[in-house]
Structures are given as structure tokens and as C-alpha cells.
Specification:
The structure is a homotetramer of 191-residue chains. Helices cover 77% and strands 0% of the residues of chain A. With 191 residues, chain A is mostly helical. Chains A and B meet through helix 1, helix 4, helix 5 and helix 6 of A and helix 1, helix 2, helix 3 and helix 10 of B.
Chain lengths: 191, 191, 191, 191
């Protein structure tokens, strides 16, 4: 089993997801700056979701890079991840068009949380296939970021009903934590 | 004739199909849980169709993996399969938005049935090209699942007019049967 | 200059075009057979356009298969072809939703004609790069189908104002002529 | 780190962007030439944006062709470029549907300017990784076109409030400058 098609299919799905989100930036009817200003919340969520999907693509790229073989469990764990990611455009549009109302903001966090869990399951499926002494196992190490992120999402979801901006700030913080690509794998490869 | 572009094109089409279905999850106007609840039937069909398309991608992946050459007949049999799969978003949206009404539910089964038949034709076209002693021929064997599925769909279609939930239950059952990836090919490869 | 990305990009664009056309099959509001029947003209044009795009992908696949190098002129000739193909969903939707009214039917032919011309230009650009003794030059030969098709489109366009069904019949005929993939290249390769 | 997935992902995103723009060519309700004529401004912007995205794909193709390795900085610089390109369908639709009104026309220029800057940043990130004596560094040379283009955009943006057609003419001129693919790289490769 080669990983080429797994990578190609994942690239395709993430490329489409990251792109069709822009369809929620509906062309406004007016032709002045105020028409554009009304789109600001949708635009802000678009940027946030673009960054999140970019992070997933980036980490997926790094993770698969050191994978040597792929089995049925990995294929389905990958589809499971793509399923949760595929809900990103929906929650992005919902949160943006409702100006970060509590329920959509919580829902956005739920999709982020499920995506993080799905990524973790995929990582475990790959590690089970690669073995504990594999390059990936050494590169991942304790996987601190992978454990902190879902914890932060889990905190942010109920907080959306206290103050939506706290949740939003937490989402942005997690994105910033991950914006640094997974240098562990890069540095392990260099050794 | 190499199979690289056939795989790449099929990956592209299935990746797009699996993704644009999410566009039928129209962003609701309300911002509370009830607005989300109204989307439940559409969401359930989305999950079901995501799983079906995932199964097709998975099996397509396994089947093509052991193919050594591709001819014109295979290219067209593949396009024929992609045609029926391309109707999935339409029947998904129709069945979901009409809360599993009889006609859309039957129509959903017809598209599933035609896709299964198209997959079978593709398999035959590939086997004709690969020969009866090929690795694929040995891996496929009696192809029990491939023969039971269309039979179950053919039963489910008229039953939609008796009780829609019977048809729905049959669709879910077929998906569950296939969720286990085609281990025959994996195990044949291991030998 | 390798051809890998040219193929991948063309695969991507054609895969998206062939798929987003299905978005013009708007989910009907009714849930009975008559609601589906109202979609018949849109569905028929969808099938026709799916076949045309499938033919282009197929022939593109065959043509590029024997190409050894790619230059800037070929890249732009390819983008020019993709441009005209990209108008297919628009004219498909327009012709289907207006039940083959004369102007949309003529417009559909114009896009087919321009696509055929663009394909011819791409072929010439590749032949200029490959040379007159190349495998592609031998495989293409007199290119009878490539010359008849645009002539038939040019006849069909004005005839749409006489009787739309004549034009439609001509479009279907050209599709049937091409449904047989370009066996010249396959047979040249076998020799 | 290989560049295969970077190319595949970028191909995917640009292929989708270049294609979904056609969704803004909404199928008109009428079925005569005047219905088509009303779409003229949208069509003109579609052609312009198709050419711009084609230019970016073409130059991206040429640039990556001579790249030997990819690091995290390059991945993010590439995603940054794709972000600005992803806004092209939005500003295309906005400018076209408002018949080149000043604000949308300026906004179109802003997205072009940011894309040009993002491309420059990507080029610098790659050159930093490849080194000053790399083939790419020699091929790029003084990068005259890459420096003139953002300057012209920066001039065109405020001019949209003086006379929209001046800005439009500048955009078309930049496209024409770039329509000649980056022969520097091709000629450097030939040496």
C-alpha cells in the first residue's frame, strides 16, 4: 500500500475546503466601503479557518512525510479526519454571519475539537502501523501541542456562553501555537 | 498507458463530490440550537453519503493498487462510475431536505444501485484487461459483498414506498458491511 | 520542463468542472416524481456536458501520454483550452434551464466550437515542440475527427435558430463520434 | 522535505479558484442575447482574473521547477500566497457585478497587490533556502517584472477614484506584461 493516493486525496479535499469557504464571502449588493465593512465578521472567521486548515495541511504533510506504509485503518482514520474538517466551511459561515453568537461560536469549537481528536486518532493509527521505534514516533515525542489544543478547545466551548470573545481569543491562541510548523519532525529528519 | 492520471482524476472528482455536499448544509438564519436541529435530516444524509463516497474511494484505491495497465475501456468504465457518483450530492440534498420522503429515498437508492453496477462494470473491464490469473482476480475471488450490495439496494428502492425507514436501514446496513475495507486485497498482497 | 504539473493542473480543473455542473441540478422543492421530471432538460444537458468533458479529459490524457517535453507555449495553449472548457457549466445550465431555446443552444455550440479550436491549437503547439517525426505526430495522422468536429459545430450553431433539435442532434452525434477513445495513439503505442 | 505535495496542493487550490469563479457567471433568467449582454462586465472580469490566476500558476510552476528543497517557511509563504489568491473570486464578482465601480475596482487592485507581495515573499523564502548561487537565483536575476507589477498596482488603486478605466487599463497592462511566461528560467535551464 503506497501513501501517494492518500496524500493526493487529502490534498484535494483540504484544497477544496480551504477554497469553497470563500463562497461564503457573498458578493455584497452595495459598491462602497460600508458594503465591505458588513462582511468584516465573515472575513475574520474566513481568515481564522484558512489558518486552521493550513495548519492541518501542514502537519498532515509533515506527518505523512515520514510514514512508510499505509493500511486500511489509516485510510479510515484519515477519512474520519477529513469528515470533521469538511464541516469547517459550515461552522465558519454560521459563526461569521451571526457575528460570533454563543451557539455558533461553541459549535465552531466543537468542530475544532473533533478535528483535533480525529487527528490524534490518525496519528495513533499511523504509529501503531509504524511501530514505537519509527522515525515518526521519535519525531512526535510527547506531542505537547497535540494534547494542549483539544484541552483548550474543551475549555473554550462552554465559555462561549459566558463571553464569546474569550472563546474566540482561545481559538486564535491555539492557531498561533500551531503556526510554527512541526519543527520536531524537521529537526529529527536533519539528524 | 499508466494509471497515474486515472487515479489522480478519480481522486479529484471524489474529493470534490465529498466536499461540495457540505454546501447543502446551508448556513441557517437563526443562531440557536433549534436552527441547528432543523438541519438534522440533511446532516444525517450528509454523513451517510460521506461514508458511501469514502467507501468507493477506499475500494477504488485498493482495486487500482494492483492494476498494472489501463486501456480505453477502463477509462470510460471509470468515467461511467464517476458519473453516477456525481449524482450523490443531488440525491443527498433531495432526500435530506424532504426528510426521507418516499420518492427521494427511492431515488437515493437508485443512484446507489447504479453506482454499484458501474463499479462492477469497471471491475470487469479491469479484470478483462488484467487476465484471470492476475493478482486482482485472485484478490477479488467470489466478490460476495459486491454482489450482495446491489441486491440489497434493489430491495430497498420499492420498500421506500412501504416504509421509508426500512430503506434507510438497508442503506446504513450496506455502508456498515463495506466499512471494513477490502481486506481480501490487503491479505492477498501480504502473501 | 516536466509535464507532471500540467497534467495534474488540467486533471484538477476538468475534475472540478465535471463536478460543479451538478450544482445546477438544484434540489427541487417538491418530493414527488413530477418535481424530478421538471429537471429533465437540465439533467439531459448535464449528461451531454459530462460526456463532452469526459472526452476532452480522455483525449488530453492520450495526447499528453506521448508528450516528452513541455514549454511555455504549450502551458498557455493548455490554459486557453481550460478557459473555454470552464464555460461549459455556464452554457450547460443556461441551455438546460431554458429548455434548449435557440440562443442558449447556439451559445452551447459556440463554447464547444471554441473548445475544439483550443484543443487543435494545443495539439499544434505540442507537435511544434515534439517535431514532425515524433510518436504523437505519427499517432495523430490526418486527425479526421479533430477536423470534422469543429465543422459540425459551425453548422449546428446557426441551425439552432431554424430548429433547436437539429443542433442538439448534431452535438450528440459529435459526442458519439468521440466516445471511442483515440485508438490511433493506443495502437501506435502497441506497435 | 519534498516539493511534490506543495505543488499538488497549490495546483489544487489554484485549479479550484480558477474554476469556481465561473459560478459568479449566474445563469441568466432570459434566453436571448440581451440576457447574455447583461453579463458582459462579469465576463470581462472573469477573463481578466482567469488570466491573472493562469499567470500565477505558470510562474509558480516555473519557480518550483528549479527548487530542490522545501522547509516550513516556504510552506507558510506558499499558504500566504494562496490566501490572497483565494480572494480573487470574491473581488472578481464584486467588481464585475458593480460595473467597475471605484471601490470594488480599487479592492481588486489591493488583492492583486497583496498577491504580488505574497509571491515576492515566497520567492525570497525559497531563495533563502536555495542559496545565492542556486539555479533559481541566477534565473530570477534582477526580477524587473516582479518589481514593476506591485508598483503599477499601487498606482492603479488610488486612480480608481479618479477614473475607473485607468485602473482597469493598468490591470490589463500588467497581465499583458506577464503573459509572456518567465523565459529567464527556461533559458537558464537550456544553458
Amino acid at each position: 500500500m503506497t501513501k501517494t493516493r492518500l496524500e493526493a486525496f487529502s490534498d484535494g479535499v483540504i484544497a477544496i475546503l480551504i477554497t469553497i469557504m470563500v463562497l461564503d464571502l457573498h458578493v455584497p449588493h452595495g459598491d462602497d466601503w460600508s458594503a465591505l465593512g458588513a462582511l468584516a465578521p465573515v472575513f475574520v472567521t474566513y481568515v481564522l479557518s484558512f489558518v486552521f486548515l493550513g495548519i492541518y495541511w501542514n502537519n498532515h504533510h509533515h506527518m505523512l512525510h515520514v510514514v512508510t506504509r499505509v493500511n486500511g485503518a489509516v485510510l479510515w482514520a484519515n477519512l474520519h479526519l477529513l469528515f470533521w474538517l469538511s464541516l469547517t466551511p459550515f461552522v465558519t459561515g454560521w459563526m461569521g454571519e451571526n457575528h460570533f453568537a454563543p451557539v455558533p461560536t461553541a459549535m465552531y469549537g466543537i468542530v475544532l475539537l473533533m478535528s483535533a481528536i480525529a487527528y490524534y486518532i490518525l496519528l495513533r493509527a499511523i504509529l501503531a502501523s509504524e511501530g514505537p521505534d519509527s522515525r515518526l514516533a521519535r519525531a512526535v515525542g510527547r506531542d505537547l501541542k497535540g494534547k494542549i489544543s483539544p484541552a483548550l478547545y474543551a475549555v473554550a466551548i462552554p465559555l462561549a456562553f459566558v463571553n464569546r470573545w474569550i472563546s474566540f481569543a482561545i481559538y486564535v491562541s491555539v492557531a498561533l501555537i500551531w503556526l510554527v510548523p512541526d519543527r520536531r519532525i524537521e529537526s529529527t529528519l536533519r539528524d
